[in-house]
Amino acid sequence: MALALEDRLAVTELIALHGHLVDDGQLDRAHEVFTEDVVYDLSDFGQGELVGLAAWREAALALGAANPVAHHVTNVVVEEVDGDRVRVRSKGLGIKADGSCGSVTYEDVVVRVAAGWRIRRRKVVARRVPLNGVGRGA
């Protein structure tokens, strides 16, 4: 059975909500976006995996002023795995206080729980080279 349009919309809004909550400093509302046991994979940034909401919140607070002032998400693609689990890929742009910008790809596993859709696993992949390095030559 295909994922209902209402579910696709709910998942897409969930992905967008992350940036609003983080940028507003509403880290205590992370349970509206993530499962309690979320795995937040920052291995591409040398920080390994954060497990659980408390670890995610502590890491955000420890980063402090180095956090982006704005998280923007775009290019959201939802792929159904089964009725209660989807894979989502999206692009993220982070704007720092000094105006510099970085780009990532979010690779998410999103599950339906009693409260609605939540991210169970997020891998953040830094975009560092054009075309993901294809065509750079030897």
UniProtKB/TrEMBL annotation:
It comes from the Bacteria. Pfam families: SnoaL_4. Coiled coil: none annotated. InterPro entries: NTF2-like_dom_sf, SnoaL-like. Residues 4-123 form the SnoaL-like domain. SUPFAM superfamilies: NTF2-like. This is Nuclear transport factor 2 family protein.
